[in-house]
Amino acid sequence: MSRGRPEKKRTSVLSCYFWPLLGLIGLFFWWWLAVRLLRASVPMAAYFAPEEAWHSAVRLLSRGILVRHALDSLRRVLVGLSLALAFGLPLGLLVGGIRAFDRATGLVFQLLRMVSPLSWMPLAVMFLGIGDAPVYFLLALAGVWPIILNTAAGVAAIDPKWLNLAKSLSANRREVYRYIILPGILDHLLTGLRLAIGVIWIVLVPAEMLGVQAGLGYFILDARDRMEYGDLVVAILVIGLLGATLDGAARRLRLKWLPG
Amino acid sequence: MAIKILECLNIGLHYPGNNYFTLKDINFAVEADQIVALLGESGCGKTSLLNVASGLIPATSGQVLFKGQPITTTPNGVSVVFQDACLLPWLNVAKNVAFGLGFKSLYVPKTERNCRVEAALKEVGLLDAADKYPAALSGGMAQRVSLARTLVRRSELSFLDEPFSSLDAITRRSMQQLLLNLLRAHRSSALLVTHDLDEALALADRLILIGREAGGTKLADWDLNSSLGTTGSPAAPNLRLTADHFFQALRAEISGRLSADLTD
Predict the structure, then answer these.
(1) Distance CA A203, CA A72 (A)
(2) Statement to judge: residues A1 and A40 lie in one domain
(3) How many CB atoms lie within 10 A of CB A75?
(4) CA-based Rg of chain B, rounded to a whole angstrom?
């Protein structure tokens, strides 16, 4: 009776850990091989070898430097994402719920969405000065579009039967939003948040090159200036690792909050 | 004289963009403890009439009275069971049943709410499924949850829009019996929309036939209790006689429309 079960469990363990691990080992192998091959023609390539990165990682972690920079970057992502959500959710609800608002803002949003957030860098520094404020602005600007678009799509996809049910139960407008629309758009909203996290994380590194004194983006520039190329590679790896972790957390959150 | 719980007076309905009336001069009343079935062919405006009578959509003309008071929205004391069970997929069965009891219009304290939900789930035989989500329910179970949601509101009048049309014949039969038992046990009135004559005969005290000719109009109104005693099995010969009358009336309406179409 239970003969099939261990096999199923083994399959899930295999697909959960074995294949991703194999992929990572493959990546490290190609990295190691590329450095070996390049070393003959570009001697500097030796500084970027996996073993150099390993030594740097141990040093940076033991001194707590990497954690400090990573925490600064994560703080900025959190603030940027919160700002994007604070503006994106109500705007998305308006776009999805009010046809006239959708038509009035459609072209404007498409136009603004197509501009790379990094294009706003000079304006951001000019108006917000140097420091965290322009970084928050750029991150929020990068993350707000997926939230607006997904929220609006979620509102448009609300089953009219649910609204009819609310009406039959004499729900007022606030109750319709709280008990039908907000839970009804959760799937779309979490997809938007996941996309926003991805975009914000990508924009974070160049944004942190905007005169701030900490963060992984800043650390890359600093490592380059110090010619500590191992540190630079470690920073790149940490950015990738944290990005993947954030994305995984958003995905898990979605699975946890959405039953069935 | 029986108390009229719902009165529809000269109801007319015109949807914007249509060049015809969906409903025209419809008059009827539902008395206390009475189950009235609205019958008619597809597109005759049965569901529209139910939506107007329940306050879900406003009538273009005429008036709907609930316990003598004109209504413009769904009043308290009324519940609607839709064709689709209309369960919210993010709430489990217990929370779906309790849905709406926390609304400002009908606030029920939490402890009282839990008691009502438990009692209603027990009545529809779903106490064990309280923690399940709608995705894990069969069509029949989902419709039972929908009935439980009506029970917890302790409605005096239920509007039922083809509630069992998506169920298989056997489940439909047991659900009809369950509904009848619940309505009788709670002494609740109901307005039932159905296209299934057998269902109407099995459940209703009165049949109202809606025709499509020149907009939805009332063609016939049979009081089954006064002519036949009590409602019973659809196989009973006197009910079959009513069915024959019903089909004759429907056939006359359709053939009248067809000949009018041919003349045009």
Answers:
(1) 15
(2) yes
(3) 14
(4) 19
Whether this prediction's pTM lies above 0.80 is answered by no
The percent of residues in chain B predicted with pLDDT above 70, rounded, is: 82
The alpha helices in chain A, defined as continuous H runs, are 4-13, 19-39, 50-63, 65-97, 99-113, 121-128, 132-156, 160-168, 173-176, 182-184, 186-207, 216-226, 229-257
A72 pLDDT above the threshold of 60? yes
Q: Is B173 found in the same domain as B46?
A: yes
Q: pLDDT tens across B234-257, in order?
A: 444 455 556 666 666 666 666 665
Q: Are residues A193 and A220 in the same domain?
A: yes
Residue located via tokens 């009935």: B147
Q: What is the mean pLDDT of residues B105-133?
A: 90
pLDDT in tens, A107-129: 999 999 899 888 888 888 888 88
Q: Do A14 and A81 lie in a common domain?
A: no
Q: Taking residues A158-178, report their average pLDDT.
A: 91
CB contacts of B105 in chain A (<8 Å) are 169-172
Residues on A contacting B at a C-beta cutoff of 8 Å = 161-162, 164-172, 175, 179-180, 183-184, 186, 258-260
Residues A157 and A106 in one domain: yes
Beta strands B157-161 and B189-193: pairing type?
Answer: parallel
**Other Cβ atoms closer than 10 A to B54:** 25
Res. A135: pLDDT tops 70 = yes
Chain A nearest-CA residue for B92:
A259
How many structural domains is chain B composed of?
A: 2
Q: Do residue A24 and residue A125 come from a single domain?
A: no
**Pairing mode of beta strands B217-223, B206-211:** antiparallel
Assign residue A55 the CATH number of its domain: 1.10.3720.10
Over residues A185-209, the mean pLDDT reads 90
Q: Which residues contact B16 (CB under 8 A, 6 or more apart)?
A: none
CA distance B150 to chain A (A): 10
- Specify whether B204 is located in the same domain as B126: no
Query: Which residue has better confidence, B177 or B261?
Result: B177
